[in-house]
Design goal:
One of its GO terms (cellular component) is endomembrane system. With 132 residues, the protein is an all-alpha fold. It is 75% helix and 0% strand.
Length: 132
């Protein structure tokens, strides 16, 4: 029973991401919800996680907390009529079983964040008197 609930929740999240994807592309979407939706969609459709899943507990924290919170916030800020239109588009997309888009730009940004973090850590290591 719990596994079915998790699957349903995962399908709902996937659908909500697609609703936001359509909302990002809609010309009537206000700038603030569009910006939030763009960040959420970019992260959700990125093939690389900001926090890799192999890191215990933290690896799934982004999937279990950050993504749903971002989706919730973006959906709350969307105008109702626009949101309904985007929901219909997402349902049509889902019925066609079209593959989900992938955001390689967001993946590149995440890689750059990790490289920046590694460079900063290397700088701290190299600048320390005893090499840590």
């Amino acid at each position: 029973m719990m596994l079915d609930d998790l699957r349903r929740w995962a399908r709902l999240l996937k659908r909500q991401v697609m609703v936001l994807w359509f909302a990002c592309r809609h010309p009537r979407t206000p700038w603030l919800p569009k910006l939030i939706a763009l960040c959420v969609v970019a992260y959700a459709l990125s093939p690389i996680d900001l926090i890799p899943d192999f890191i215990p507990v933290l690896g799934y924290l982004d999937d279990l907390l950050l993504l749903p919170l971002g989706i919730w916030l973006a959906l709350r800020l969307m105008p109702t009529a626009l949101l309904e239109e985007c929901r219909q588009q997402a349902l049509a997309w889902e019925a066609q079983q079209t593959p989900r888009p992938v955001n390689r730009v967001a993946a590149g940004v995440i890689v750059l964040i990790w490289l920046g973090l590694l460079a900063w850590l290397w700088h701290l290591y190299a600048a320390s008197p005893a090499g840590l």
